[in-house]
C-alpha cells in the first residue's frame, strides 16, 4: 500500500501507522460488540429488533472511544503517525433525529470530540472508474457516491488538505505525498515544537 511504501521511505523520523477501519479494533470488548451487532443485523428475525438498535447505538457512541485507544497506541514514541481510514468528524452515520435517535446522535457527536482533528489530510483520489476497477467491492455508482461524500467531508475540515492522485503510478503518488509533507506548515510545527 501507499502507507507502507511511504513509511519505508521515511527512515529518518520514527513514523507510526495505524489502520482505523472497521475490521481492526483496539479493544477486545469493542470487537465483541461489533461482532454481536453484525450477527444480529444479518439474522432476518433480529434485523429490526430493539436489541439490535440499542447495541448499534452503543457501538456508534463507543467507536470514537475505541478509535482513541488505537490512536494512543500508534502515537506512543512516534513523531508522526499515518492513519488509514481516519474517522473524520461527521463520518459516523447519524440515527433518525427524533426520540432515542436524537439522543444517540448527540452522544455520538460528544464522543467524537475525543478524537483529535488531523494536522494534515491527504485525500487519495483519481478517475473513479480506474480506482473502482482495482478493488470492485461495491457497484461503481455506490463507489462514486462514497467518493463524493468523502470529498465533501474533507472540504468541510479546517487546516491543511491535499488531493493526491492515485490513478497514476504509485511512485508518482508517493513523490507527491513526500513533496506535500516537506512543504507542510503543520508538519514543521509538529517537528519543531
Walkthrough of the structure:
The chain has helices spanning 2-9, 28-42, 50-75, 100-112, 128-134, 140-155, 170-183, 185-191, and strands at 15-19, 80-84, 120-125, 160-165. It has 193 residues and is mainly alpha-helical. A two-stranded parallel ribbon has the order 1-2. The chain has a two-stranded parallel ribbon with strand order 3-4. Helix 2 runs antiparallel to helix 3 (50-75) and helix 3 (50-75) runs parallel beside helix 4 (100-112).
- Kindly state the percentage of residues in helix: 40-55%
Rg, rounded, reads 18 Å
Instruction: Enumerate how many helices there are, as a single number.
Output: 8
| Percentage of residues in strands | 5-15%
Counting copies of identical and different chains, the oligomeric state is single chain
Which terms would index this structure?
two-stranded parallel sheet, 8 helices, 11% strand, 193 residues
Topology:
Layout: H1 2-9, E1 15-19, H2 28-42, H3 50-75, E2 80-84, H4 100-112, E3 120-125, H5 128-134, H6 140-155, E4 160-165, H7 170-183, H8 185-191
Parallel strand pairs: 1-2, 3-4
